[in-house]
Write a structure and sequence with these properties.
The protein has helices spanning 2-53, 94-139, and strands at 59-65, 68-73, 79-85, 88-93. By secondary structure, the chain is of the alpha+beta class. The protein has a single domain, classed as Helix Hairpins (Orthogonal Bundle). A hairpin with a 2-residue loop joins strand 3 (79-85) and strand 4.
Length: 140
């Protein structure tokens, strides 16, 4: 009888660990998507600035990595180059680029919402299992 209880306890403990690992994976995904969303907002603010008064031949700083930047002159304020995937860049008007960014922001927000729901459900399961495991340990 005790052997069966120990096996059952071990199974529940393994299930708890598995759910905890799943939660950690979702948390990692949440952080990655949230960081990407921050980059999208920064890019959108920059695009909005192009619409609000950046002129051709204005001087800007372009980051070239780390702590270094170079000075450059804007040649075209009406069009931007947009990365649509890892190896494809297309030219869009600033308005089209903002629309594209808004769609990406919406997708990111939907993904974050889904992941938050998953994390919440896992947290509820983990909380219940943790209480049950603690009760079982107290009985032994």
């Amino acid at each position: 009888m005790e052997n069966t209880q120990n096996q059952n306890f071990e199974q529940q403990l393994n299930q708890f660990r598995y759910l905890k690992e799943q939660r950690d994976v979702f948390q990692g995904q949440f952080e990655i998507i949230n960081a990407s969303l921050g980059n999208l907002f920064t890019t959108k603010r920059t695009m909005d600035s192009l619409l609000e008064g950046v002129n051709e031949n204005d001087e800007i700083l372009i980051p070239i990595g780390g702590l270094a930047s170079i000075k450059a002159t804007i040649k075209d304020t009406k069009n931007v180059l947009v990365s649509v995937n890892q190896d494809t860049v297309i030219e869009k008007t600033v308005e089209e680029a903002i629309e594209f960014l808004n769609k990406l922001i919406e997708q990111h927000n939907n993904q974050l919402k889904f992941i938050k729901e998953r994390i919440f459900a896992l947290d509820m399961n983990l909380q219940g299992m943790n209480q049950m495991l603690q009760n079982r340990m107290g009985q032994q």
